[in-house]
């Protein structure tokens, strides 16, 4: 093959002879140049992908570089930080749930069981053993696993599942707690006051004859605050020849509570009262030998021993028994 090159109108011609071999070599060199250029572009793109999009880098090269590992580790650390935040929130919910449980236990546990539970408190110092089983089925080892090789998605799923169970349990306990709030389970007088007379058979303080006492008497000074034992409606607030100034409250589920011998009544018939509300003051009115609060509880008209209903530490024993 011959190529003639003319540089201008007055210039002379130049002739180039190109053989087939030379043409083949030129085409091969040109191909190699394009391959090298493409490789350079691919390499630069691969490096950029590693830094900004490791997923693309995997698709491009199918390898994992140290930079990608560092980038992936940062992602894991971010997920771990999020997981730790979720666990902290769960701890707070568990604490709140424990408080609700304590309130519910205080309301729902009869006094005999409360006294037995004190014996169980001594079990904390007894010998214990057995294999250690972690709470969660997926635990993160922050010491041995520097590469953060842990299935974070499963751990998060477990956390969410546990959180849902806690929330469900919380709702059940709250429902039970709300059900117990209206019942007359709160002591009608502040702690620190003993009993001057128990429920049941006793010697009448005025006639000195055997008699039945339909409640318990709290020994307290005149003017001591009398509190509503539960939510309810005042169905009686007046003076009675034997009970003196008396208040009767109707609660839910057929319960009523009675507060007698008061010095001063602070609510009226028809008033809505809440658990722990101040309703009267201790006095010495009616058939009484001294200042005290007489307290009775009824269930559908049947007398109950208040000590079987109230949720509190047992007061000092009555003197006459």
From TrEMBL:
Keywords: Coiled coil, Membrane, Transmembrane, Transmembrane helix
Protein name (database record): M23ase beta-sheet core domain-containing protein
Organism of this sequence: Polynucleobacter paneuropaeus
Coiled coil stretches, renumbered: 66-100
TM spans (from-to): 26-50
Residue ranges of domain M23ase beta-sheet core in the record: 212-306
Pfam families: Peptidase_M23 (PF01551)
GO MF annotation: an example: metalloendopeptidase activity
């Amino acid at each position: 093959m011959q190529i003639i090159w003319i540089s201008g109108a007055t210039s002379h011609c130049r002739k180039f002879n190109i053989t087939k071999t030379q043409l083949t070599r030129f085409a091969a060199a040109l191909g190699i140049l394009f391959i090298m250029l493409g490789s350079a572009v691919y390499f630069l793109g691969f490096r950029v992908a590693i830094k900004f999009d490791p997923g693309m880098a995997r698709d491009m090269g199918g390898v994992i570089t140290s930079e990608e590992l560092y980038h992936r580790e940062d992602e894991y650390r971010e997920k771990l930080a999020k997981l730790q935040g979720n666990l902290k929130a769960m701890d707070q919910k568990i604490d709140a749930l424990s408080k609700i449980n304590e309130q519910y236990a205080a309301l729902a546990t009869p006094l005999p069981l409360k006294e037995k539970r004190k014996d169980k408190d001594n079990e904390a110092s007894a010998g214990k053993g057995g294999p250690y089983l972690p709470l969660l089925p997926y635990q993160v080892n922050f010491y041995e696993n520097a590469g953060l090789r842990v299935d974070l998605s499963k751990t998060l799923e477990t956390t969410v599942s546990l959180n849902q169970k806690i929330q469900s349990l919380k709702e059940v306990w709250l429902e039970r707690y709300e059900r117990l709030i209206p019942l007359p389970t709160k002591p009608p007088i502040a702690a620190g006051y003993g009993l001057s007379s128990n429920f049941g058979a006793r010697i009448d303080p005025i006639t000195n004859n055997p008699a039945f006492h339909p409640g318990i008497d709290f020994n307290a000074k005149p003017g001591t605050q009398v509190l509503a034992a539960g939510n309810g409606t005042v169905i009686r607030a007046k003076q009675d020849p034997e009970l003196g100034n008396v208040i009767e409250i109707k609660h839910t589920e057929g319960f009523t509570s009675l507060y007698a011998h008061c010095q001063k009544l602070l609510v009226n018939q028809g008033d809505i009262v809440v658990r722990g509300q101040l309703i009267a003051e201790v006095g010495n009115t009616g058939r009484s030998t001294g200042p005290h609060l007489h307290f009775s509880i009824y269930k559908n008209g049947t007398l109950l021993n208040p000590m079987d209903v109230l949720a509190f530490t047992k007061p000092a024993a009555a003197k006459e028994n």
